[in-house]
Design brief:
Helix 2 runs antiparallel to helix 3. The protein is an alpha/beta fold and 245 residues long. Strands 1-4-3-5-2-6 form a six-stranded mixed sheet. The chain is globular, with a radius of gyration of 36 Å. The chain has helices at residues 24-27, 29-35, 38-65, 87-90, 124-138, 193-210, 231-244, and strands at residues 84-85, 107-112, 148-150, 156-158, 177-182, 217-219. Bound molecules: zinc ion (ZN). Zinc ion binds at residues 111, 220, 228.
Length: 245
């Protein structure tokens, strides 16, 4: 027989019964209630027991039925943050025959286009077509000089055929050299977030695809005295390389 009712079994006066992890004393409440002296129950403690012990038992049941959270599954790989825009989509003119073949890629060079006529008002497709027109028809090159162009919209525009040597780094520097240009002038500012994100992901993909070592990733200014690809983007490129060296 219980000599006293454990405090865990008593309701708090003026408040709802506490629901908390049952103590060993509370877990023994049921047994105590069944053996409790009948005279004490008649004196009015029975209702206290029923009221106070019920929440403790419910809390215990909830604690037993709680299932552990599911193990965290690895997140699926993120899709590339860009779309490849094919030549046919931006209305490219054909490659002319005055070019050298490119048998393989052993280095990559990053450029910026600097200011392009209509930048900020025209679509990227129109800007790329304007660059091709300047390179191909005004300068007389076989095609647009770059193999890939990264648009302000964060998409990647297909440039000169990968089977053709580019015209972007000057003379022999173009041999086995993949030319990638980012639309914009990055002398003082970086590309906007989505364009920079594409630049990073696209460079990573090209380095991996061709197995180009990180020290063979260049900015245009590594080959000649030029601002290209802009001091700010060039500094970003240096950090990109350092992080992967
Ligand atoms: Zn350049």
């Amino acid at each position: 027989m219980c000599e006293s009712i454990p405090p865990e079994c008593l309701p708090e006066i003026g408040s709802r019964p506490r629901v908390r992890e049952p103590s060993r004393a509370a877990r023994s409440c049921g047994r105590m209630a069944s053996s409790f002296d009948r005279r004490v129950i008649l004196a009015g403690f029975g209702s206290l027991l029923l009221t106070a012990c019920a929440p403790a038992r419910r809390a215990r049941t909830r604690s037993i039925q709680q299932t552990p959270p599911p193990a965290r599954m690895p997140a699926p790989p993120a899709p590339p943050p860009y779309r490849i825009v094919r030549r046919s989509e931006w209305g490219a003119e054909s490659l002319k025959p005055n070019h050298d073949p490119m048998a393989s890629v052993r280095r990559i060079t990053l450029h910026h286009t600097a200011e392009v006529a209509g930048m900020g008002t025209r679509r990227d497709a129109d800007l790329v077509k304007g660059i091709q027109n300047f390179h191909r028809n005004s300068r007389g090159w076989a095609d647009i000089g770059y193999h890939w162009i990264i648009g302000l919209d964060g998409n990647v525009y297909e440039g000169r055929s990968l089977e053709a040597q580019g015209a972007h780094a000057g003379g022999g520097n173009n041999v086995e050299n993949l030319g990638i240009s980012v639309i914009g002038d990055f002398t003082r500012t970086l590309p906007a977030a989505r364009q920079l994100r594409t630049t990073q992901r696209f460079l990573e993909a090209q380095l991996a695809y061709y197995g180009v070592p990180i020290h063979e990733l260049h900015g245009h200014r590594d080959f000649k005295a030029t601002e290209c690809p802009g001091s700010t983007l060039y500094a970003w490129l240096a950090a990109f390389k350092q992080a992967r060296a």
